[in-house]
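Why run this: before we spend reagent on co-expression, it is cheaper to look at a predicted model of the complex and decide which construct boundaries make sense. The entries below are exactly what would go into the expression plan.
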Amino acid sequence: MSEIVIDNITKIFGEGGAKPFTAIKDVDFHVKDREFISVVGPSGCGKTTLMRMVAGLETVSRGEIRVAGKPVKGPGPDRAVVFQQFALFPWKTVRENIVFGMRSKGASKAERDKAVHHYLTLMKMEGTEDKYPHQLSGGMQQRVAIARSYATDPGVLLMDEPFGALDAQTRTIMQEELVRVSKDNPRTVMFITHSVEEAVYLADRVVVMGRNPGHIREVIDVAQTRQAEKWSEEPIDDVMEKSSFTHLRGQVWRLLREQMGDDM
Amino acid sequence: MKRRIPLLAYSIASLVLFFGGWQAVVSAGLVSSFVLPSPIDVIDRTITMMIRPFAGALLWEHALSSIGRFLGGFGLAAAIGIPLGLMMGRFRLLEDIVTPLFEGYRYVAPLAWVPFAALWFGTGIGGAIMVIFTGAFAPCVINAYRGARLVDRHLIEAAQTHGASELRIGWEVLLPGALPSIVAGLRISAGLGWQSLIGAELIVVSSGIGYVMIQGQSNLSPETVVTSMLVIGLVGLAIDFGLRAAETAVRRKWEGQ
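The model came back. Tokens follow.
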């Protein structure tokens, strides 16, 4: 049971220094086990900082984050991160990259081979095990990074704008793939993005954040609509034309626009 | 490829001109062969030293004992310097602790350690290794440190969030990430180490090329001194050539990525 409990946290950078900066204030939120949530918000709303705190890559100034009941003290393989920059090890092959996290957990050679085969098949990348990352396209590299995180078998998957560096077509394909992969391998996912469409298309719930300082503005439920309208059975372009989708997208957009208005 | 041939011709011409001029100056009696031995004298001396022991051993045995000491000191410098540099790049606290001591040490010339080397190790192999170590250590540390600092932060974070221990981060992320910088550092380090070795051998040991040189001087045999210089130069060149090849190989492999 890998639920994420974000228990009333505040993040202040440079606390005690001359210019402390409050990035996030009083954020309180629970992600249920195997729930897919996406976090959207304008630049500087602290969404990446929030994810980094869950990952244990950033400390919390006040409050506490608990994953599967245990307070987060630092990074660990129970919370694998997929980065926007892919962050594959350039000197390791696709195979070595995929098993990196498995080796931390002491997986046997047989288990590792099985996982490499499984995930490369799942990602439609058979035959690339001995290639190096630079020999692959951006989309392929990000698939490997996603496979590396899934193979580590974390309770929680954290994704920091994973498709942000990809071109529009690749991005669309990857969004569909992620829906397909996460349907068969449900995990608790926290997905950070700039894209409202992406947030609504992928998530069970969309967390809309605001800034100055970063806070949660509203949480929008998508899961019910998705199931009722069977989004995951149709191509992404068709889904995006459905009125159920455009309605939710409009709702998120309005919240973001109000937020922009606050600053002007 | 066409362009290479004339360039090589210039190089050969310059060597021929240099050695020819050198031989001519001595043959013409412009300087006494006692002050400057001619190239032919030197070649003659080199051949003699290869077949007849001088200062207790044949020329190549002296060269080997120098190379052995060099590898000892250089290897030790790399074995301690590279991990230290990587750790300094990873842990700010260690960097703050080591930096003042390190900055103090690195501006002390390797030869300034010779008196201590002699005091602590006498004429044993330890003294020479210590002097080479002091020459070779700094570039190992500095380049490993710089290389580690330049490793993409996301790679380290990816390793952390996939459960890697600090040891594994060092071995599988920082070391390969810093490798181009480390190999460049090793080349500088080998040059400095080899130069300090000769200095050390002039003083603290009783074999090796530096020792041959000092014996040549006291036996009033300038051609022995020039032969030694030649060997020092050639071995140094070979070391640099090997490390340059390693550097190119690493760079080619890494920059393709």
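The radius of gyration of chain B is 22 Å. The interface with chain A takes residues 152, 154-155, 157-165, 168, 172-173, 176-177, 254, 256-257 of chain B (CB under 8 Å). Bring this page to Monday's planning discussion.
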